[in-house]
């Protein structure tokens, strides 16, 4: 049976919205990551059979199939195609799944999967152009924003404001410790950016983590979505800019090229979930992918569950009976940011490096998605 392996993975550092990438086009940022990926792997650009990128707001500089434009900017030959997909926050994780499926089917041997999002230059919801949901949809489902969904999850699972803020402080502390330890250095490609005055500098450190983040500081923030609620800017993911990608191959092709894969993809799953609660999908997706892999949560050495809002990983921990010491051990999106289309492969790259660092075997990635969906992936370090 064919096997899909991850040969290499890289990402940009994640920038705050209106931060270090404010003057960097997302198509050019994605191109830098694509070029670095094949350079590190030692693979000819001409050998890549498809480039699949996730991107949520596919307008302006992210419109016109940003996967294709980024590939051309990066100097890939014009015979290498590209396609851009939108599975909301899990878009680049879905890109990995689609790439893996193409390889397993025997259609391809070498695929790049990744994602990009500039929430600075292409604001969230700009692709909607002010459109409202169809009445045929709202007649069937209560459609609310994700912040209110997070409020309902916190209420349903009984999480207090103090619990959410404490989790968020931990995210910042873990991220800052990881940066101090140099854990992210190997996976990040330095990017030259231009400041407001035209000066240029290299950036290679995530911009999101805030020193001095304490429960007292977060406790002073106002709630955003419900005056009497618990969700604030401090216990939600940050709007961010970034790009990421992984190089997928059939095991046979990697062997033929003399490449040493970093990991294999063990199992993939995608589920739909309640579109009102919206963010609970990772629980069902995790159960499904574990069943497919014939493994238990106790077999996982590390898990990354995207911190869209603090109640999401906390509800996942509660229902999965998982070990909090294995979850998002180097910080998550609350501290490091959430560049929508890029987050899936960003987290996959970090999970891969963390398994190598900790000598772990299995890693699990799960991401909640808009309108009630979730992807889950299990990888095994080789």
From TrEMBL:
<dbReference type="InterPro" id="IPR020610">
    <property type="entry name" value="Thiolase_AS"/>
</dbReference>
<comment type="similarity">
    <text>Belongs to the thiolase-like superfamily. Thiolase family.</text>
</comment>
<keyword id="KW-0012">Acyltransferase</keyword>
<dbReference type="InterPro" id="IPR020616">
    <property type="entry name" value="Thiolase_N"/>
</dbReference>
<keyword id="KW-0808">Transferase</keyword>
<dbReference type="InterPro" id="IPR020617">
    <property type="entry name" value="Thiolase_C"/>
</dbReference>
<feature type="domain" description="Thiolase N-terminal">
    <location>
        <begin position="4"/>
        <end position="252"/>
    </location>
</feature>
<dbReference type="Pfam" id="PF00108">
    <property type="entry name" value="Thiolase_N"/>
</dbReference>
<dbReference type="InterPro" id="IPR016039">
    <property type="entry name" value="Thiolase-like"/>
</dbReference>
<dbReference type="InterPro" id="IPR002155">
    <property type="entry name" value="Thiolase"/>
</dbReference>
<feature type="domain" description="Thiolase C-terminal">
    <location>
        <begin position="259"/>
        <end position="381"/>
    </location>
</feature>
<dbReference type="InterPro" id="IPR020613">
    <property type="entry name" value="Thiolase_CS"/>
</dbReference>
<dbReference type="GO" id="GO:0016746">
    <property type="term" value="F:acyltransferase activity"/>
</dbReference>
<dbReference type="Pfam" id="PF02803">
    <property type="entry name" value="Thiolase_C"/>
</dbReference>
<protein>
    <submittedName>
        <fullName>Thiolase family protein</fullName>
        <ecNumber>2.3.1.-</ecNumber>
    </submittedName>
</protein>
């Amino acid at each position: 049976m064919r096997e899909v392996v991850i040969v290499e993975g890289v990402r940009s550092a994640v920038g705050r919205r209106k931060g270090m990438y404010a003057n960097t086009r997302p198509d050019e940022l994605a191109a830098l990551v694509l070029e670095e990926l094949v350079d590190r792997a030692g693979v000819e650009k001409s050998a890549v059979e498809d480039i699949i990128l996730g991107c949520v707001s596919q307008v302006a500089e992210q419109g016109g199939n940003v996967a294709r434009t980024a590939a051309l900017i990066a100097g890939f030959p014009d015979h290498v195609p590209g396609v851009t997909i939108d599975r909301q926050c899990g878009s680049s994780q879905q890109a990995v799944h689609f790439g893996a499926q193409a390889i397993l089917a025997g259609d391809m041997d070498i695929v790049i999967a990744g994602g990009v999002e500039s929430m600075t230059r292409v604001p969230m919801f700009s692709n909607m152009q002010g459109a409202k949901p169809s009445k045929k949809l709202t007649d069937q489902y209560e459609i609310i924003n994700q912040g209110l969904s997070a409020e309902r999850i916190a209420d349903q699972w009984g999480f207090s404001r103090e619990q959410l803020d404490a989790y968020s402080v931990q995210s910042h502390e873990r991220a800052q410790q990881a940066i101090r330890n140099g854990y992210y250095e190997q996976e990040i490609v330095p990017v030259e950016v231009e400041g407001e005055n035209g000066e240029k500098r290299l950036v290679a450190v995530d911009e999101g983590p805030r020193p001095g983040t304490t429960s007292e500081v977060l406790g002073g923030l106002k709630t955003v979505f419900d005056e009497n609620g618990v969700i604030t800017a401090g216990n939600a993911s940050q709007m961010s800019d970034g790009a990421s990608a992984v190089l997928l191959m059939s095991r046979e092709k990697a062997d033929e090229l003399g490449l040493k894969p970093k990991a294999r993809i063990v199992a993939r799953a995608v589920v739909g979930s309640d579109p009102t609660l919206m963010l609970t999908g990772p629980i069902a997706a995790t159960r499904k992918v574990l069943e497919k892999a014939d493994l238990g949560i106790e077999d996982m050495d590390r898990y990354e569950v995207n911190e869209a809002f603090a109640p999401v990983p906390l509800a996942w921990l509660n229902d999965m009976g998982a070990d909090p010491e294995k979850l998002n051990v180097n910080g998550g999106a609350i501290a490091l940011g959430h560049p929508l289309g890029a987050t899936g492969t960003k987290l996959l790259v970090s999970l891969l490096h963390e398994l190598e660092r900790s000598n772990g075997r299995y890693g699990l990635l799960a991401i909640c998605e808009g309108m009630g969906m979730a992807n889950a992936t299990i990888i095994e370090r080789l």
